[in-house]
């Protein structure tokens, strides 16, 4: 696993999830967030509604972009999909933490600076959800096994719940980025997230970057909500 890269701009610790149905709505939120936010995540909803062209625009304007497509397919398809995203100039791309998929993704990114993040167990899953999906092992055991496999493969980073971050850091050591969704500022609704923590707790547990979507994007004043998360991050560093 490559050495951990220091986060040069403290604003980069916060990644805002642009889970919105149109580029027009995403542009409006990015406009309201202005210089407060430097790093955006584009997932299925915006990605399938013109979000990749919008990602190019954000990158051209100097923003960092995380493409959260959680790839998982046969190796050839994953490798070529990753190569296409690498050409976009994105900073992060997710794949599911299956060994064949992770190896293919690392092959597909070639020498590009794109960093591949392996998604361990979704933050919307608890023990019952994993059992329902047919896994015999529990959440902690599954996360730990996938992180150990990711480390062996040399993946660039891990996506995990903030509640797993301290254990994940213990397995990774000082190498590899830890990115945690499932982050909720005090008083905000968890929604469908089941393994959550507050921003300061996620940072103290070892997360390098926090992903926050609805608590910022749906806030009456998104820039104020983002600044409050950034203040909590700064206080925990
Ligand atoms: O395990 C995972 C992996 C990815 N996500 C993504 O993060 C954001 C979280 O959004 P909130 O509105 O802050 O809940 C969302 O885009 C997910 O697709 C995740 O939540 N958990």
From TrEMBL:
Active-site annotation:
70 (proton donor)
Report the EC code(s) recorded for this entry.
4.1.1.23
Q: Does the keyword Disulfide bond apply?
A: no
**Record carries keyword Lyase:** yes
- A molecular function (GO) term: orotidine-5'-phosphate decarboxylase activity
Q: Where does substrate bind?
A: 19, 41, 68-77, 123, 184, 193, 213-214
The record ties this protein, via Pfam families, to: OMPdecase
* SUPFAM superfamilies, sorted: Ribulose-phoshate binding barrel
Q: What does this protein do?
A: Catalyzes the decarboxylation of orotidine 5'-monophosphate (OMP) to uridine 5'-monophosphate (UMP).
What's the subunit arrangement here? Answer: Homodimer.
Tell me the protein's name: Orotidine 5'-phosphate decarboxylase
Q: What species is given as this protein's source?
A: Ancylobacter crimeensis
């Amino acid at each position: 696993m490559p050495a951990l890269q220091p986060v040069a701009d403290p604003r980069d610790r916060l990644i805002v999830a642009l889970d919105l149905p149109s580029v027009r709505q995403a542009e409006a939120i990015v406009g309201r967030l202005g210089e407060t936010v430097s790093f955006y995540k584009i997932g299925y909803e915006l990605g399938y509604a013109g979000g990749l062209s919008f990602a190019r625009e954000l990158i051209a304007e100097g923003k960092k972009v995380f493409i959260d497509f959680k790839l998982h397919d046969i190796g050839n398809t994953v490798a070529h999909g990753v190569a296409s995203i690498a050409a976009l100039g994105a900073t992060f791309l997710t794949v599911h933490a299956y060994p064949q998929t992770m190896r293919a993704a690392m092959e597909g990114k070639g020498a590009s600076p794109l960093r591949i993040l392996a998604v361990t167990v979704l933050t919307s899953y608890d023990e019952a959800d994993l059992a329902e999906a047919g896994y015999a092992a529990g959440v902690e055991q599954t996360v730990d096994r996938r992180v150990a496999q990711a480390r062996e493969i040399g993946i660039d980073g891990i996506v995990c719940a903030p509640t797993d971050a301290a254990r994940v850091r213990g397995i990774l050591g000082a190498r590899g980025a830890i990115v945690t969704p499932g982050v909720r500022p005090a008083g905000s609704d968890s929604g469908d997230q089941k393994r959550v923590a507050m921003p300061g707790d996620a940072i103290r547990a070892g997360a390098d970057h926090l992903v926050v979507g609805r608590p910022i994007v749906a806030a009456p004043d998104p820039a104020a909500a983002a600044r409050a998360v950034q203040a909590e991050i700064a206080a925990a560093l």
